[in-house]
Amino acid sequence: ADQELARELGDDVAVFAARDAAAEAVRVTLVDVRELVQTNCGDVAVREAGFVGNTPRDPVALEELGATVHGNITKKPPKSTRKGVRFDAKAAVEWLDAQVAALATANGDVRREKREEQAARQRRDEAWTLFERELSSATARLDASLRAVGLDDLADRLVQSSRAASGGTEEGDDGKNKGGNGGGGNGGQEPK
Predict the structure, then answer these.
(1) 180 vs 40: which has the higher pLDDT
(2) In sequence order, what are the residues at sequence separation of 6 or more whose Cβ sits closer than 8 angstroms to the Cβ of residue 76?
(3) Residues 148-181 pLDDT 10s
(4) Which of 6 and 149 is assigned the larger pLDDT?
(5) What pLDDT is recorded for position 153?
(6) CA angle 148, 153, 159 (to 5 degrees)
(7) Is the pLDDT of residue 48 over 90?
(8) Please, what's the b/e burial string for 15-39 (b: 16 or more CB within 10 A of its CB; e: otherwise)?
């Protein structure tokens, strides 16, 4: 289960890099379009195009803003407020539609990878829970068997809980040392 999770996390790097590249392409285009509209058509046209505040860096927000700006400029192209200047709105957003579509795909890939990672983590956690349950059960059976044949000193050395196996103490609820080897309740190992 740990190896499956490591594989899942390992293949995420390329997906995130592709998403980040697509987001940067949309962001650069949006900044350029905003500057073109601002310079040629004015503040009102910038707001009508869908720009409010700073251009975001978040890939999901960029996808939404890109789709909004493309739709707004395509439906109602801004007119130049400068004499003698013709603003070609279609040319200004020509590449934006394809870039937003690529970013939408990349964002979808990231969401899929996050779901797969979550599922892999859940499978790993379930495997560890089962392992700990089986270990505890096997330890209890071995403890009983060792005590039944008079090997209490060996039974005392068994790890009594998964908490102890994961770095906790080996002391029971009664606070008595179950290490059995003269150590401080942690099997003679240095405290962690």
Answers:
(1) 40
(2) 48
(3) 998 888 888 876 554 444 554 444 444 444 444 4
(4) 149
(5) 85
(6) 90
(7) yes
(8) beebbeebbebbbebbeebbebbee
Q: 138, exposed or middle or buried, with CB in 10 Å at 0-12, 13-18, 19+?
A: exposed
* Residue (of 31, 25, 107) closest to 69 by Cα position: 31
Tokens read off for 75:
């439906």
Q: What is the 3-state secondary structure (H, E, C) of the chain?
A: CHHHHHHHHHCHHHHHHHHHHHHHHHHHHHHHHHHHHHHHHCHHHHHHHCCCCCCCCCHHHHHHHHHHHHHHHHHCCCCCCCCCCCCCHHHHCCCHHHHHHHHHHHHHHHHHHHHHHHHHHHHHHHHHHHHHHHHHHHHHHHHHHHHHCCCHHHHCCCCCCHHHHCCCCCCCCCCCCCCCCCCCCCCCCCCC
Token pair of 141 as six digits: 């059976």
Contact between residue 179 and residue 170 where contact means Cβ atoms under 8 Å apart: yes
Sign of CA dihedral 43, 46, 48, 50: negative
Q: Residue 69 and residue 57: Cα distance in Å, rounded?
A: 16
Decide which of 95 and 31 is more confident. Answer: 31
Distance CA 110, CA 17 (A): 10
